[in-house]
Amino acid sequence: MKFLYNKQNVYSTRFFLYNYNGSDYRIVKVKSCRNSGFEEIKKNNTFIDLNSDEVKRCSLSRTKRNLREIALCNNFEYFCTFTINSNMGDRYNLDICQNKLKKILHKIKRVEKNFSYVIITEKHKDGAFHFHGLVKNIPDLYTNENGYLSSTIFSNELGFNSFSKIKDYTKCCNYITKYITKDCIKNSHNQIYICSRGLKKSTREEFSYIEFSPSFSNDYCDLKDFNINNLTSNELLYFINLKEGKKRFI
């Protein structure tokens, strides 16, 4: 039996369209995707250095992508900031700060089942921890003496808190990922962000070909993020034809 090896049989270029919320989309061109039936052979003594720069870079990129997806898919209402009053807990102990925050989040969830959140921890220059995030369906908001929207339960049990109504949703979702850097805070469970359960994720479709100009490109993939409300008339027509199946493959 003669086995003919052809790289095109093993690897192929694939195009994916991710739908986040009906307005925001991402096109991904995977340049060398291994086809089904051609599995990678790994040696038993293969060692992966989890502390290598490349592994850390990939992990950080994946976290940033996941956070942006959660933000875009769940129609949050407010951008929020929390700091812990020194009289209510140790502001310099990460686990204490996060556990106190989680207890309050769970308490609100028991009262308002539709309450949803995604929260990131940040460290002040003095070493104290505070939080930024996105929330929706939070009860008991009021206007404090400084003119900020605040939550009664956070004020009583945590400390300073503020909620700003999201105006430009796409921009806000992109902004929240700025906290994901190589110096971002991880807790004892290696978590960079905490979020409520049951949050929506994007849907994915595959096409034989999608014509686009990438906003990011490397050796592995090209990608482009876009909002359909910002497309030109020709781009919108192409997108409609793609979605209606006139350019559909799978």
Question: Explain this structure to me?
Answer:
The protein is α+β, with helices and mostly antiparallel strands and 250 residues long. The chain has two domains: 7-38 and 203-243, no CATH class; 75-195, Alpha-Beta Plaits (2-Layer Sandwich), CATH 3.30.70. Helices cover 27% and strands 28% of the residues. The strands form three sheets. It has a five-stranded antiparallel beta sheet. A five-stranded antiparallel beta sheet has the order 8-3-5-4-9, sandwiched between helices. The chain has a two-stranded antiparallel ribbon with strand order 6-7. A hairpin with a 5-residue loop joins strand 4 and strand 5 (129-136). Helix 2 runs antiparallel to helix 5. The longest helix is centred in the first third of the chain and has 21 residues, at 53-73. It is globular and about 65 Å long. The two termini are 33 Å apart.
Name of the CATH class of the largest domain: Alpha Beta
The CATH architecture term of the largest domain is 2-Layer Sandwich
Largest sheet: 5 strands, antiparallel
Number of strands: 12
Instruction: Summarize the amount of helix as a percent range.
Output: 25-40%
Strand order across the largest sheet: 10-1-2-12-11
| Average pLDDT, all residues | 86
Strand content: 25-35%
CATH topology of the largest domain: Alpha-Beta Plaits
The sequence of SSEs as H and E is HEEHEHEEEEHEHEEEEH
**What is the overall shape?**
globular
